[in-house]
Structure formats: structure tokens, C-alpha cells
Write a structure and sequence with these properties.
Oligomer: heterodimer
Largest sheet of chain A: 7 strands, mixed
Number of strands of chain A: 11
Helix content of chain A: under 10%
Order of helices and strands of chain A: EEEEEEEEEEE
Helix content of chain B: under 10%
Mean pLDDT of chain B: 91
Shape of chain A: globular
Radius of gyration of chain B: 13 Å
Shape of chain B: globular
Number of strands of chain B: 11
Distance between the termini of chain A: 33 Å
Number of helices of chain A: 0
Structural class of chain B: mainly beta
Low-confidence stretches of chain A: none
Low-confidence stretches of chain B: none
């Protein structure tokens, strides 16, 4: 594919439901990032993978948030027992470099928790 | 928490005018990047300026960086209606993750 893809594009969940958000990075990109963007705000970092290793998860807001990238390509962000404050756009980005450089973003998944 | 602050928060201009957006940040950086986000879409990378550079150009874009003041500016010349978007600066103090400002909403009126 030409760019980063994410699915689903939109997700509506009832409070307490578990959700799983998928990210397909650009083929061959080493680094993968998840960001959370609240309405009217800039994106905030959640977690970072280098290949299959999760090197930084300091931005995950609670232990209800879990991310994985088992084979170093596709990544899944899972949110357990969703709360209304989890409503946001979740952005995935990939980069061909291990450190620094341009990040290529997907279109995001808009999560609405009712 | 946000590392940077963009100024102004919102800017409305006429087509053909220049638009200038400013960004301030708090910690030392390796580089500073500017991104654009159209309504309902992901972020698109515009330009990257390294900490040892002072000015960079790309098409109608001009970016300056003043590390002593911890600030950067993005100038868009001869603006077009299609430039209407939110613009974010982002820094990478740790070398990997990006820390974004809150963005400037630019509206270019035809």
C-alpha cells in the first residue's frame, strides 16, 4: 500500500466494551507510533514500537490500554472497559528510521464511547 | 502534556496573502517538524528543520528556527483556499516520539 492505513475509521462503543484498533504501517518501516488526539487538540503520544519491541509505553493513560506489534508490522491498540473520556481520534504513524525523522500518519480511527 | 504552543490559535486571511504561524517549545530538541491536518484527516508532514539549521524552504513554505528562543515560525506565501487546515509544530526531545503543540487553525478565504 501507498500509506499507513487504519481500521475501522469510525467506532462507536458502549461504555464498558472492549475495542481493538488496527494499524497497517508502510511496508518496511521500522518504527510505529500511536497517538491520541482529543477534539481541538494536538496529538498526544501513547506508545512506540521499534520492529516488534515496545520501547516506550509511557503515554498510555491507564492499564486499560494495551498495544502490540507481534511480527513487527501490523499493530493493534486495544482499549478494555472503555470510558467516555476515551473518546478521541487514535492516530497511527510509521517511520523508516529508528530515531527522529519524518513520521507518516494514517487517517485515524474516531472512537466514540457512549 | 503539550510541549509546544502555537500562536495564533486561529488565523483568517484572504487568498494570495501570506500566513505566518509561530511555535514555542520548552526543552532541547533534535529537530522540529511542521504538519498539516485537514478536517477529518490524518496529519501530513510538511517540513523538518534540524536543530543546527536556522532556515529552510520548501515550495511556498519557509520555516525558521531560533533555538536560543526555543521558537519556530512557518510562513506560507501566496496562500490558497486549499491551504485551509490546522497546522501543528512537533518536536522530538527524546529522539523518537513527537510532542505536538495545540495547533493553529488557518482559514484562507477565496
Amino acid at each position: 500500500g501507498a500509506g499507513v492505513s487504519q481500521s475501522p475509521r469510525y467506532k462507536v462503543a458502549k461504555r464498558g466494551q472492549d475495542v481493538a484498533l488496527r494499524c497497517d504501517p508502510i511496508s518496511g518501516h521500522v518504527s510505529l507510533f500511536w497517538y491520541q488526539q482529543a477534539l481541538g487538540q494536538g496529538p498526544e503520544f501513547l506508545t512506540y514500537f521499534q520492529n516488534e519491541a515496545q520501547l516506550d509505553k509511557s503515554g498510555l493513560p491507564s492499564d486499560r490500554f494495551f498495544a502490540e506489534r507481534p511480527e513487527g508490522s501490523v499493530s493493534t491498540l486495544k482499549i478494555q472497559r472503555t470510558q467516555q473520556e476515551d473518546s478521541a481520534v487514535y492516530l497511527c504513524a510509521s517511520s523508516q528510521r529508528r530515531l527522529g525523522g519524518e513520521q507518516f500518519f494514517g487517517p485515524g480511527t474516531r472512537l466514540t464511547v457512549l | 502534556s503539550q510541549q509546544g504552543e502555537e500562536d495564533p490559535q486561529a488565523l483568517s486571511i484572504q487568498e494570495g496573502e501570506n500566513a505566518t504561524m509561530n511555535c514555542s517549545y520548552k526543552t532541547s530538541i533534535n529537530n522540529l517538524q511542521w504538519y498539516r491536518q485537514n478536517s477529518g484527516r490524518g496529519l501530513v508532514h510538511l517540513i523538518l528543520i534540524r536543530s543546527n539549521e536556522r532556515e529552510k524552504h520548501s515550495g511556498r513554505l519557509r520555516v525558521t528556527l531560533d533555538t536560543s528562543k526555543k521558537s519556530s515560525s512557518l510562513l506560507i506565501t501566496a496562500s490558497r483556499a486549499a491551504d485551509t487546515a490546522s497546522y501543528f509544530c512537533a518536536t522530538d526531545p527524546s529522539g523518537s516520539r513527537l510532542t505536538f503543540g495545540e495547533g493553529t487553525q488557518l482559514t484562507v478565504n477565496p
